[in-house]
Specification:
It contains 5 helices and 4 strands. By secondary structure, it is α+β, with helices and mostly antiparallel strands. It has a two-stranded antiparallel ribbon. The radius of gyration is 15 Å and the shape is globular. It starts with 10 loop residues before the first helix and ends with a helix.
Amino acid sequence: MPAKKKRKPNPAFMKPVQPDEALGAVIGAKAMPRTEVTKKIWGYIKKNGLQDKKKKTMINADDKLKSVFGGKKQVTMFEMTKLVSKHLK
């Protein structure tokens, strides 16, 4: 049996991206890899209890997140990823 290859992280995910002002208010204005952006957003959502209690795939936006989510009060986890990437350079 051949030895299992260790997965290499995709370099595109590791390249630092710059959050814009709206997203910077939530996760900080420092450039960071996309993986870190996602971690920080989830940290913010959990810390502020913004995950919908009944439907866990839904994220309820507070004032800071509303500007990231294009003014929407609630988005799905999958929609959130798409909306967040619009705020990255």
